[in-house]
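Students often ask why we bother predicting the structure of a whole assembly rather than each chain alone. The short answer is interfaces. A chain on its own may look different once its partners are present, and contacts between molecules only exist in the joint model. In this exercise we take two input lines together and write out one structure for the complete complex. Read the inputs first and try to guess which parts will touch.
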Amino acid sequence: MAFGFWRMIRYPQQGGIFLALGAGMAILAIFAGRQIYDFFTPASAITFDFVISAFVALASYKFKLRPLALTSLILAYAAPLLVAGGSDSVSLFSYLLAVSVAALVLAGLMGWRALIAWSLVCIGMYSFPYITNAYNSDAPIVINFAYIFAMLYLLSGMFAVVKQGVQDSGYEVVLALLNGALLFFWIYNVAPKDWQALLFAVWATVFAVGSFIAFRASSKLDPFYAYGSVAVAFIAAATSVQLQGATLTLAFTIEVCLLVVTVLSLTKDVKVATTTSLLFAAPVLLSFVSMANYLSSHELFTQDMFALLVLSFALIVTGRVLSPEKTSEGGPGSALIVFGTMYIWFVIWAFLHILMPESADIATFAALTIYTVVGLWAYFVGLTSGDKARRVYGAALLVFVVARLLVVDVWSMELSGRVITFFVIGTLLMSTAFYTKRKSAVAPTV
Amino acid sequence: MNYIKIGAIAALLSLPLTTYAIKPTVPDYVNQQNQDLSAFRQYIPVSPQISTPKVVEVTIPNEALGFPVFAVKNTTNSSPLSPYLFVTTAPEATPSSVTASGATGSAAAATDNNYSTYLEFPLSPGASTSGGEIVFTYARPIAASSLSFALDANVALPQNISVYVDTPNGFSTVLAPQSLGPYANSVAFPRTIATVWHVRLLYSQPLRITEIKLDEVTRTERVTGAVRFLAQPGQQYAVYFSADRYVPPAPTESGDLATDTGVLRLGALPVMTNPSFVPTDSDKDGIPDRTDNCVSIANPDQKDSDGNGLGDACEDYDRDGIVNAQDNCIDIPNRDQLDTDADGIGDACDTVDNRITERMPWLPWLGIGIAGAVLLVLAVLAFKYKKVDETPVPPAPGGTL
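Now the answer. The structure tokens for the assembled complex follow.
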């Protein structure tokens, strides 16, 4: 190490390699001394390891070598693994806190933000056994360190933005997400269940304030989006802790709908709002349970039905809001509307079958008739108004009805039901086919 | 010069740390040597008078062999030794008394395992034959199926020998008078169990019996235990025994203590009560395990409501698999031990909600609402500021150059 340090005076890169190698060997020698000869106490061994890492960090600072700083960080974080002796969790995380502070100071002095992210990754690796409940007895104490780390890295991110502005938006996003994800796992797995919602809410507020500070300091929206997204995720997590089942689906639906509308009204940017609408994936996934519940239900009006209708309504409204005016082409908004109407078709199907449990054929007939009427209406409205998306949607609905009749119902229905269903739907389709033909025959003369 | 100063100061500052760091840790085997001598009830102090290292053997009471856990400590330097338990077994005859009629001298001469002494049956003056009787009275009934005897030199065999035993119903013949072969030194008879045995002899010449005994088939074995260890000159030792719990042996090398050669046998020495003896108390409730009505769970009150000998703490009234002392709801089965409000009372029997979020269920929603509101307000502000920042600054009056 001494040779490396001396060599760095003239050849920083080459000397740095010697210094790093020497530091690694010294830490391994301490490990061997403890493991084989019982030569060091755990406290003295880790102190020596820390001093060695600090020396390497000092050299990196003096000679402005970022790789060497990263090396010192890795050495410092690897030290507890090489102490070869049991240490209690509080001591371990106290040491990690000291290393974190040292890393953040170095990052602050030199502007090496990568150190912050890597330090956070190392903290996450040490946290893993606790948040997976492997050391459950210590986890409730260590979670307090997790709060300190979260605040520390949030502040360091803010400080970095304030001091140097946003140099790399991707980095700010990664740091915010890493910090948020680590904190989320700690709270979700370790914190007392009755406090989780409040803890998520508090941290959502903290991250929201952080996002605003980052924005004001940098005048860029990227850090605001990054930290704001974490805040939104925490609000969603708090909601999921408080609710479950259909109520949770309902709550997520309302939250995402409000978020999309808010983002659109603030940014006036349909693309950003459309991206935000991808969050509907959460209530849509949850809705599958509600769908299964409602199908097997014997009551017409249940929470699941209400949640599905609200989700459907939210999707249609959001789709309408996001759809560009006066365009015949379908877009993300149209996709949302299609999704929303599919929920309505599902609710109609299930509602009719629950209503007529002894007459499933009639329920199927009624549902298919409704689909046919709506499909025809959509098709012709799309045809007359030149709305291609609506026309395709109507046609798809009709194809579904016909496919269902030919593939399923022709085999499963009773004879009377089959005759009535095929007659009514066939009549509807045939009559409208003539209408289409007459219209198309007239059209060329115009 | 400055570098030298800095180096010297750094060296001085690091000296305490270095001293602390290079101080070796105590090896594990040293810690293991600290045996728990409080487990032993008794000990025997040993002060061997030897001039060279010698294997010393100390006899220990037979009661201690029931739980053969021992420890030997060098009381001079407080170091433990590895003892070697040397157990010998020898057949032990049932205690008996013997009397003889028609004989001269003590009948004990025929049962003293000494072939130079004898019990003499003289021939009555003028008689061609005489009779004598030896009576064995045992401390408890013995089983035997043969009688062995040895005669003095130049003594003729008796003419016949018969054996009888006392029974509750009177006298019973075991062996009718039987003449003996020229080389006989024993007679056999059906296996018989009795306490009092009569051996009658009919002889025509003076009879001298050096030893006679009934061959017991129910004979017990006598076990003798002794502890051996390697003693050093000028050192004092204590042999601990009668432990009430297991104590691992000292992990020290003991050498060959099994070989009898050169062993200094000190025999039975005075036994002392170990003043540091502490009865085993697994649950640390102050009640020794042997008398604790709930060994594994602390229950200083020893409460046993139903008087079944098992302390209430170890009972499982609701039969949910969790003993009362650890059950957060003693009378109602709740295997999950769910205690939502963390007040120590299981949900199954908790009638009061103690969580702040249970008393104020709106609190988490308030928190979520505030967080959402803060986020919304800050978002509005952020976009408002953004617009202001992006608003082009009007050109200064007069235009630019």
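Check your guess against this: Confidence is low (pLDDT under 50) at residues 442-446 of chain A.
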